[in-house]
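Appendix B. Chain record.
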Amino acid sequence: MPTDTATVDTRLFGRDVAYSFDGPWGAYWLVLLRVIAGWWFLSAGLGKVLEQGLLYDTTGWLEMGTQGSIFHPMFEWFAANAAFVPNLLVPWGQIAIGLGLIVGCLTRLAAANGMILATFFYLGNAGWTNGMVTSELFGLLVFATIALFGAGRVYGVDGYLEGTELLERHPRLRYMMG
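Structure tokens predicted for this chain:
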């Protein structure tokens, strides 16, 4: 009885890597994971913008929500001196990451930025009532999985773009796709 095997060819840390799935289920799982993570961040970003307008203010969370975290002094510094960075990156970054993941465009870049924001949220989390395993850590692992397995190549724009002339002329763009 023949089985369908899907193979994903990608580059990881500058090395060619290929892995296969028996049947389509692994590929479907990557698409589902990518779309759900994209929706998670898109809806979070849109919620912030729709509730507070185009200029979202993170200073309350930076000053109060991170109290008890060992990184609280760093977050306080951001609130006092560079609040424009998280004010811009949190809602608009979430929207861009969400859209990129949902359509599978520049997926590795979107997932890497999702990892940055998830790390930011993880370090600011002071209420580790469940220990060091939190939803932020889980999000970090989801984004790492999406980037590692090149989830944008499966039913995503990245899979289409990889066969174009643009990537033949600029092969380094492949590092952002996947």
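Further analysis of this model is presented in Appendix C.
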